[in-house]
Amino acid sequence: MLLVDGVPQTLEVVRQPRHLGGTQAYWVCPQCSALRHHLYLRDGVLACRCCHGLDYRSRHVPAVVARAARLMGEPPKLSDLGVSQTQAGELLEEMKTRGE
User: Fold this and answer.
1) What is residue 64's predicted lDDT score, i.e. its pLDDT?
2) Are residues 6 and 40 in the same domain?
3) Among 20, 30, 89, 90, which is most exposed with the fewest C-beta within 10 angstroms?
4) What is the 3-state secondary structure of the chain?
């Protein structure tokens, strides 16, 4: 039993055997029943990334830019991605409304 925003929720944990021995624990997503390493709290609801529609920022950055940024040790610049300041502001507002 877990308290989420003061509301008790029951979460299931499943252990599966590993091929080299031992077991691996997974959460069962309360929304889709998939086994997950992580669950996320969004708007008072616990669920996996898929159920919440969450995505990784790196999936939207061209691989060449992301690789170069990692090698240089700095995040990619908007200009490298061909994104204007206006577009960046709009994207930021959209991300805020989605809770990212």
Assistant:
1) 72
2) yes
3) 20
4) CEEECCEEECCCEEEEECCCCCEEEEEECCCCCCEECCCEEECCEEECHHHHCCCCHHHHCCHHHHHHHHHHCCCCCHHHHCCCHHHHHHHHHHHHHHCC
Total Cβ atoms within 10 A of residue 5: 10
Count of CA atoms in the C-beta half-sphere (13 A) of 79: 0
Tens of pLDDT along 85-98?
677 667 767 767 77
Task: Specify whether 47 is located in the same domain as 6.
Answer: yes
Kindly state the tokens that stand for 49. Answer: 């990334």
Tens digit of pLDDT for each residue in 31-74?
999 999 999 988 888 999 999 998 877 777 777 776 777 777 76
